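Both lines are given unchanged directly below:

***
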Amino acid sequence: MAIQENTENVIEAPAPTAWPMIFALGLTLAFAGLVTNVAVSMVGFVLFVAGAVGWFRDVLPYEHHVMVRLEPKPAAVIEEKIGVDYLQVGELGNRAVLPLQIYPYSAGIKGGIAGGVVMGALAALQGIVYHGSIWYTINILAATAMSNLANADTATLSSFIPQAFLVALVIHASASILVGLLYGVMLPMFPRYPALWAAIVAPLLWTGLLWSSLRVINPVLDARIEWRQFIVCQIAFGAVAGFVVNLTEQVHTMQHLPFAVRTGIEAPGLGEKRED
């Protein structure tokens, strides 16, 4: 509804409401209860329904409005024209977040594959040294998706299980490629000491996140995982993935170009002139 002004300096405006906030809070609690407690989901569902009903009643069948009195107009302001100097691409200090050159996505994929191979070899070696079987760590990883291996004994986990091998291969390959892509995107943003970020800082942050959340996500895996060896594997992955990514030649980014140029729109005056 259009805002209408009357002779008393009063306008009609949409009435304030808190129902959208209650709706969003209820939806958040409903999903949070999936990894915490069913009581949280029940409370969230009640708030979700109450927020939805209240929100709809505020807008249907007619929108609720309130009358708001206008403040008196301030004194006239004299505009003063001031020139503005614009930063040019490449000037010192204006490319702190978005680098001018980045690694291609293929560099992250190659780095993730290389790091995943080294990490898998170390994990297999760990299984041989500590449990006498190359399949132990593989089956432990597969247990995150296979419920029949969650409570398996050491003898079962030390045997070759074709289904578990395929599941572990898919999980490990997918995670390695995704983390490798993340390395390819993040490393150009850390021009100083990229090897330190790739081999030490990122693996330790990732391991700390898993250590704090794994007891909720997968308590069985949390009870069986050997964190010292896990950290060694993560550092090896980060070092190899970062090394492979850094070997790749960087390409120029298009972040500094106008939106019309980045989307491929023919915009005269924004791009380089081309001959027909």
Remarks:
- The beta strands are 10-14, 65-69, 101-102, 251-252.
- The chain has two domains: 10-68, 101-252.
- The chain is about 55% helix and 5% strand.
